């Protein structure tokens, strides 16, 4: 037979069962397929093993598929002068198996979904052994027109397996869709909750800011009240002193003798204290305050600065004088404690 006749006969040869349906019935999935010009089909071994549950594809091929039913993709395509197809992760070193190798892997699979297909394969073998051949029933309605392919009815076991697998996939699709809808609803609820939390946080921040403003205003009021109370206390001290010094209200100034006499009654005056009193009393009466450094008083009394300081503390303790801060040069300032 010449070459044109071979090509014409190859083109006119049709498969009794669509190979896609055949593979789907065997594996429960639509795996990648490479069809050669002579009508042979090759399938990526990794795809078939994955769908059939073989975790170790190398071991599965070594155990169940003979070498003549498995090849490297570059070897298969090179035999027909074809190049490796582009895309979909087709690689030159990709290991592929024939349709017979696929059937052998299915027969070695333990997945329940493969049981109907394996039963049909067993039926085919039994029929061929008993009758010498196996024939598919022709479809009742043939497609019209010359050259139209002949349609055949699919074996009942394979058809039922395909229907069950399709129903199973539909259920999985529905469950996936339900899960996605539930997930979207949860995401919407989470987003709404986050928005509510953001609004609450903003309201809390505004409340905190308002509270801070109130606290600042309250602090300012308190500070103003403290300053006012300090002024009132100063004025009260002044009034008390004026009340204790009626001679001042009458326009009379106390004399040095009167001051010294008053101090002698207030405390037991020692010689040191009396020496200090004699020096500071005229100054307090005349100037109203004492701004002499301790050293200056010490030089006038012949006492040490330390002793002068003790005498002044004793006069303060017995309400003879009182302190009124310090001078610019650091010397203490004293005034009469009138009462």
UniProtKB/TrEMBL annotation:
GO molecular function, one term: DNA binding
Pfam family, one: Bro-N
Domain Bro-N: 16-132
Entry keyword set: DNA-binding
Keyword DNA-binding: yes
Xref: PANTHER family: BRO FAMILY PROTEIN, DNA-BINDING PROTEIN-RELATED-RELATED
Entry protein name: DNA-binding protein
Source organism per UniProt: Streptomyces griseoflavus Tu4000
Lineage: Bacteria, Bacillati, Actinomycetota, Actinomycetes, Kitasatosporales
């Amino acid at each position: 037979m010449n070459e044109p006749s071979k090509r014409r006969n190859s083109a006119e040869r049709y498969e009794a069962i669509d190979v896609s349906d055949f593979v789907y019935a065997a594996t429960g999935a639509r795996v990648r397929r490479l069809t050669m010009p002579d009508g042979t089909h090759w399938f990526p071994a990794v795809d078939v093993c994955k769908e059939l549950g073989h975790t170790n594809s190398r071991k599965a091929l070594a155990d169940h598929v003979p070498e003549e039913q498995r090849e490297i993709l570059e070897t298969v395509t090179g035999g027909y002068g074809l190049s490796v197809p582009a895309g979909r992760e087709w690689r030159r070193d990709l290991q592929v198996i024939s349709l017979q190798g696929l059937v052998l892997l299915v027969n070695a699979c333990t997945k329940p979904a493969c049981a109907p297909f394996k039963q049909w394969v067993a039926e085919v073998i039994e029929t061929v052994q008993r009758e010498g051949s196996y024939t598919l029933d022709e479809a009742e309605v043939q497609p019209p027109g010359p050259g139209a392919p002949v349609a055949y009815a699919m074996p009942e076991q394979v058809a039922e397996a395909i229907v069950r697998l399709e129903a199973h996939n539909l259920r999985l699709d529905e469950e996936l869709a339900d899960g996605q809808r539930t997930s979207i609803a949860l995401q919407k609820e989470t987003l709404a909750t986050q928005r509510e939390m953001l609004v609450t946080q903003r309201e809390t921040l505004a409340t905190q800011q308002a509270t801070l403003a109130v606290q600042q205003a309250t602090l300012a009021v308190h500070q103003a009240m403290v300053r006012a109370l300090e002024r009132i206390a100063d004025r009260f001290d002044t009034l008390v002193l004026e009340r204790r010094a009626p001679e001042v209200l009458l326009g009379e100034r106390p004399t040095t003798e009167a001051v010294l006499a008053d101090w002698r009654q207030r405390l037991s005056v020692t010689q040191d204290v009396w020496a200090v009193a004699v020096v500071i009393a005229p100054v307090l009466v005349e100037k109203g305050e004492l701004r002499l450094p301790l050293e200056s008083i010490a030089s006038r009394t012949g006492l040490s600065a330390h002793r002068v300081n003790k005498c002044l503390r004793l006069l303060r303790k017995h309400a003879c004088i009182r302190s009124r801060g310090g001078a610019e040069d650091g010397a203490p300032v004293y005034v009469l404690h009138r009462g």
